[in-house]
Amino acid sequence: MQTRLRRASTRAWRRPASVALAGCLASSVIVVALSTAAATATTGLATAATSTASRDTNAPGPTNTGVPAGTRLTVHNGDINVTKAGTVLSGLDIHGSVNIAAPNVTLKDSIVRGGAAPSHNHCVVTDTSSNGTNFLVEDTELVPTNMNSYQNNLCGGNYSALRINSHVGVDTADVSVGNATIEDSWLHDTTYYARDPNHGGGPSHNDGVQILGGSKINIVGNTIEGGANSAIQISQDYSPVSSVAIIGNTLTGGSCSLRANDKPLASLSGLLLASNVIVPDQTIHNCGILLNYGVNYTFSWNVWSTGSLVKVMRAR
Description:
This protein has strands at residues 5-7, 43-45, 72-77, 80-82, 88-90, 92-95, 98-100, 106-108, 111-112, 122-127, 135-138, 141-142, 151-156, 159-162, 165-167, 173-175, 180-183, 186-188, 207-211, 214-220, 223-225, 230-234, 241-247, 250-252, 258-260, 268-274, 277-278, 289-292, 295-300, 303-304, 313-315. The protein starts with a strand and ends with a strand. The chain has one domain (57-315): Single-stranded right-handed beta-helix, Pectin lyase-like (Pectate Lyase C-like). It is mainly β and 316 residues long. It is built from no helices and 31 strands.
């Protein structure tokens, strides 16, 4: 069935002096030295990723996300399963995945590359455990080296992702649990497959950020270069979605850069869209924001990179 689109009038209200987020996590980090047994002695220097996309030098990109230039990294071969509260993983080049199952864990100044190409849905960094509360990942690059259609990058919830450089995965970040913040990060260069088993053998729905369930989700101040589907995709496949703040991001690409669908539930509420800049390069002409009619939202000062206000498109 063909999607029916209609433009809705822009509902701009007076911009508040400050915008309250949907519940950012307060992270109090307890530093715990990583055991020397957890890493090999091989070391290397972090290198900055590059992109052909032009951007504001102050926006998140290759020079201000991921591992700070000059950081010396220690190679770790294999997965890391974190079960001790307060663990800090720092200065690592991880040839494997990281799984969080303890509170107050920090992953910083590191690269996570994943392991062998997976045979089922998999993420290079995962926090879906009920014990994995208050996880902080910052100044870190997520880049799976053995790709196939099952591989995503950061998944789950109960995390704060700050200044991460996440790329190559089908989705560069997923939220399925809630209590998640992605801020000042660069999400880019997702991988597309013409035949993806997750979509019945059809093409991949690769997204910069995919939200599938949960509450208190903040997407703030990022550069998100969308894949074939969207920069940000919201649906309720796993659970109801509410209290989502999407503020101050630069969004590009996709058929529409930001899409929100209330299905399979009857409605979706608590969506705040404010001060985002959208580059007009979508495959559906001028489809910067597409929201199903069951999505209730607040909208303030979202503009095209050319300076004009974005008009929301609606779908049935």
